[in-house]
Amino acid sequence: MREAFLELCEQQHARVVRFLLVCGAPLLDAQDATQEAFLAAWTELNTRPEKWQEVRNPAGWLRKVAINCWRRPPGSRNQVALRSRSSSIRLLWEKAQPGADPGELTPVTLTVLDTLARLGGQAPIVWAFHRDGFTNVEIGELLGCPAQQITDQLKKVRKALRAALADVTEGRTPR
Predict the structure, then answer these.
(1) pTM
(2) Where do runs of H (alpha helix) occur along 24-146?
C-alpha cells in the first residue's frame, strides 16, 4: 500500500497544487493545502485502511480535501487568504512583463485567472476540476451537487472566458 501511495503522491502532487492555483489560491497556500491533503490521505490510509479502500477516486478526493484545507486555513490566515485570493490576480497582472522566462504568466493566463476570480463561488473550482479531466458527474459527486448544475456552471465560465479572451486578443484591457 505504501508504494501505491507514493505513486499517487508522485502523480498528483504538482497537479493538486496547480488545481488550487486555478481555483485562486496563492502559491504558498496552494502548497500548504496540498501538503495537508496528502497528510490526511496518509493518515486515513494508516489509521483506517478500510475507509481509504472505499475511496473510488483518490485524485478527486485529494483535490476536494485540498480545497477544504485552503478554504479553512488555521488562525488569522483565513482573513489573509481571502484578501490575497481577490488581490493576487490583480497584482500579478500589474507586475507581468513579457520575457523569455517560460515560468512567467502570460497575459492570456492572467486573464483566465482574473476572470475565474471575478466569477467567484464554485466557478473556479468547477473549472479546475474540468480542466483536470473530471467528468461533470464526477465533479458533481465531489462537490455534492447534480451534474446539470456543473454543466450550467461550465457554460457560465466558458461564456465569461470567451468575452474576456476576446478583449485580450483584440488588444483591449480586460474587464
Answers:
(1) 0.73
(2) 27-47, 49-53, 58-71, 77-95, 107-119, 123-131, 136-143
For residue range 33-76, list pLDDT tens digits in order.
999 999 999 999 999 989 888 999 999 999 999 999 998 856 64
Q: Which residues contact 59 (CB under 8 A, 6 or more apart)?
A: 8, 11, 12, 15, 132
Q: With contact defined as beta carbons under 8 Å apart, do 119 and 153 qualify?
A: no
Give CA 65 to chain center in angstroms.
Answer: 11
Q: Which pLDDT belongs to residue 1?
A: 77
Return the number of other C-beta atoms located less than 10 Å from residue 62's C-beta.
Answer: 23
**Angle, to 10 degrees, between the axis of helix 123-131 and the axis of helix 136-143?**
130
